[in-house]
Amino acid sequence: MAIDYNTLKNRQRQERDSYPDNLGLRVHRALSWLHRAEQEADPDSRFIFLWIAFNAAYASDIDDREGLSEQGTFNSFLDKLHELDASKRLNDLIWRAYPNAIRVLLDNPYVFPGFWDYQRDLKTEDQWQDSFAAAKRAANNALAKQDTTRVLAIVLNRIYTLRNQLLHGGATWNSSINRDQIRDCVNLMGELVPAVIEIMMDSPTTLWGEASYPVIE
Q1: pTM, to two decimals
Q2: pLDDT tens digits along 57-90
Q3: For the chain: N or C, fewer Cβ within 10 A?
């Protein structure tokens, strides 16, 4: 069961004076959005708030022109989280809690960026299908090797595609045609985001980098 906002917030209140400013700001912002997500019953809204919470923790620019799994800074962040994850929370999420949901998500073309490139005439049908097949092979290879960070990067790339659909107005609120991926992504993010925040709180001396949009007084 995922650790919740109240547990993390109580800990943060006790420790925050010892956090470096950049970590303190990331954790404070991420917790605020996690709190909002946990209050939301609507899956579409809950997903959006969870993504904001995750991005607040990551706190670095994400380039829409690249898939998350291809961005060096993002992969370095995941590598750092996995290295610092002494309790193996990320491993548990990938290999115990949601392996079936992850496989379903990786097989879903509607959260694959290349499919939408084809719809916009940026790729031919053969090109997107070839890229989808190659991505599935890469995902299956990572799954077979139990490469947690690679699997997580690929999964988040799919989730990011869904995020783009919602935030760029490419989906209808409460639409019946995207319930499966919304449900699975909400469940995954609902456990991933608290785990990420907790790992960062466990590692206050780690250099997490400058927070985006610092507080100006």
Answers
A1: 0.89
A2: 987 766 555 555 556 778 888 999 999 999 999 9
A3: C
Q: Could you read off the pLDDT of 126-176 as tens digits, one per residue? A: 999 999 999 899 988 998 999 999 999 999 989 989 998 898 888 888 777
Joined tokens for residue 20: 């470096």
The conformational region for residue 174 under phi > 0 = left, psi -120 to 50 = alpha, else beta, is: left
Euclidean distance between CA atoms 112 and 167, whole angstroms: 16
Of 181, 146, 142, 156, which Cα lies nearest the Cα of 43? 181
Distance CA 152, CA 75 (A): 9
Cβ(90)–Cβ(82) under 8 Å? yes
- Which residue in the block uniquely carries the two structure tokens 């380039």? 63
Distance CA 140, CA 155 (A): 12
> Any idea which residue has 């998500």 for tokens?
105
